[in-house]
Specification:
The structure holds two protein chains of two kinds. Chain A contains eight helices and no strands. Chain A is mainly alpha-helical. In chain B, 30% of the residues lie in helices and 28% in strands. The chains are: A mainly alpha, B alpha/beta.
């Protein structure tokens, strides 16, 4: 399994130049705007979504059949993708923190608005990135990269459709009865924790679904 | 046995691998031949579990299939290898973390022998060199069994001959064996012990190569000669523009058949007559 994680990490050596370019662009934009959230989050988010790119490359080079000739069970092959994502999560958190402290102490010392809350936002964004991976992985295992775009686009369109319909009838809900302040306070206090729990459950569910799809797939 | 396939069936919408039973003994090189779409790659994929099958069983090294058994299997596919942005060094790093028996020295020895640049991406190598990298990768974890799908396609005759020598050397210990699927049947005529011929998902024959060579005779007959020829002796016939080609068993050869033009019978001829020819 370690070999497969290394394979996906090695794949990233071809993309690091692009990542650095995008990071430099986002850093310059952040300096111009005086808001460094973009600079702190761009590289970690790119790292977190690179798992999806590894699927695309595997499919492009038709590596799946060969991968199945390795002495690894299908379970371990699926697990390796999730382990790779975990490695990326740790790496992106580390990089995010390094960028944060570089900005805080060197690039723009003592800038207003750059506080530890920003690290909390970074973690929440990373969790959102993991959630995207958790949704994508089983769909890719089931339908392949090409078809999965259409499947996911259909899901998004469906949700947008449902949202549009609901928005028409939103006035039916009495807004004064919704304790907005309490909700905001809850998100502020427990947002990271709740999101972590939600994402953890989603990842476990995603793994089970991926495994079910991959176990029955022919290559 | 290094491979034993019993009564394997795999059904697709328009194709069926139909009750296939084959065996690959230790120390043997077994050729798998057949037309495009005959089911050779499907059979190989079923053996290594890249494809599920409907019924039957696959035994590797006399044991029911399990992923661990693939430690002793090296595979070369026709169109499936690794991410082509990888270099030889990348492949070595990945493989030594996948196979317990991965032998980096052996891998780099092959790479040096094949004169493959270490730092060049695979996609920048020629077709022949890519194939050599695949073969070197398949051989470098000391497998007891090699499963090769078109391993010599795209290679020039000299390199092909070198690789075939390597395969012969590989089985010379009497323990290793090779299942070699190929369109280049002349390669098999040099190295195969047995030949399995698959057509339309069925095994047509599974016999020692020497038996096949000794058993079949191909005759070329004019239309008149064909009309007079005893039809019960003909296994397959193929009508050409100017003549008939017929395949008969050597044991059916009678003295008066000597007058007909006898053709040196190759595996290709036999395969062609089975696929393109007709029964009488």
């Amino acid at each position: 399994m370690k070999g497969l994680i290394i394979k996906d990490i090695l794949f990233m050596k071809n993309t690091w130049k692009n990542m650095v370019l995008i990071f430099v662009g986002s850093l310059l934009l952040s300096i111009a705007l005086g808001n460094y959230l973009l600079a702190i989050c761009s590289l970690p988010l790119m790292l977190l979504t690179s798992g999806i790119n590894t699927f695309q490359t595997d499919e492009f080079y038709n590596t799946e059949s060969f991968m199945l000739s390795y002495p690894l069970s299908r379970k371990k092959i699926v697990l390796s993708k999730y382990a790779f994502t975990l490695v990326m999560l740790l790496l992106s958190t580390y990089i995010g923190c390094v960028i944060y402290f570089l900005i805080y102490f060197i690039i723009h010392p003592g800038i207003n608005g750059l506080n530890l809350d920003m690290l909390k936002h970074l973690l929440m964004l990373e969790l959102a990135g993991i959630l995207v991976d958790a949704i994508f992985y089983p769909v890719i295992y089931k339908f392949g990269c090409e078809k999965s775009r259409f499947v996911l686009m259909s899901i998004v369109m469906l949700l947008l459709g449902v949202g549009s319909i609901l928005s028409v009838y939103i006035h039916v809900i009495k807004m004064d009865k919704i304790p907005l302040e309490t909700i905001i306070q809850f998100i502020d206090q427990y947002g990271l924790l709740s999101l972590s729990l939600f994402v953890s459950v989603s990842v476990v569910l995603s793994y089970v679904l991926s495994l079910l799809a991959f176990r029955h797939k022919d290559y | 046995m290094n491979i034993e396939v019993n009564d394997l069936t795999k059904t697709f919408e328009e194709f069926k691998l139909d009750h296939i039973s084959i065996q690959i003994a230790k120390g043997k090189i077994v050729g798998l031949i057949g037309e495009n779409g005959a089911g050779k790659t499907t059979l190989i994929k079923c053996i290594i579990d890249a494809m599920h099958f409907d019924s039957g069983e696959v035994l590797l090294f006399d044991k029911p299939y399990s992923a661990d058994l693939k430690e002793d299997v090296g595979v070369v596919f026709d169109h499936s290898f690794m991410n082509e942005t990888f270099t030889i060094q990348d492949i070595n790093i990945i493989m030594k973390n996948i196979y317990k028996n991965w032998d980096s020295n052996r891998f780099f020895k092959y790479i040096k022998e094949f004169k493959i640049p270490l730092k060049k991406e695979i996609k920048k190598l020629s077709t022949g060199m890519k194939k050599k990298v695949e073969i070197a990768t398949a051989l470098s974890h000391h497998p007891k069994l090699l499963i090769l799908d078109e391993p010599t396609s795209g290679l020039d005759p000299i390199i092909r001959s070198e690789i075939l020598d390597m395969f012969e050397d590989y089985v010379s210990n009497g323990e290793n064996s090779i299942l070699l699927s190929t369109h280049i049947t002349s390669d098999l005529e040099h190295i195969a012990d047995d030949v399995i011929f698959i057509s339309k998902g069925k095994v047509i024959f599974d016999r020692p190569l020497q038996d096949i060579k000794n058993d079949y005779v191909m005759l070329e007959l004019t239309f008149e000669e064909f009309d007079q020829f005893p039809k019960q002796d003909i296994i397959r016939k193929k009508k050409n523009r100017l003549d008939y080609q017929i395949l008969i068993h050597k044991k059916s050869m009678k003295k008066n058949y000597e007058k007909y033009q006898k053709k040196f019978t190759t595996l290709d001829d036999i395969m062609l007559l089975y696929i393109k020819g007709e029964e009488v």
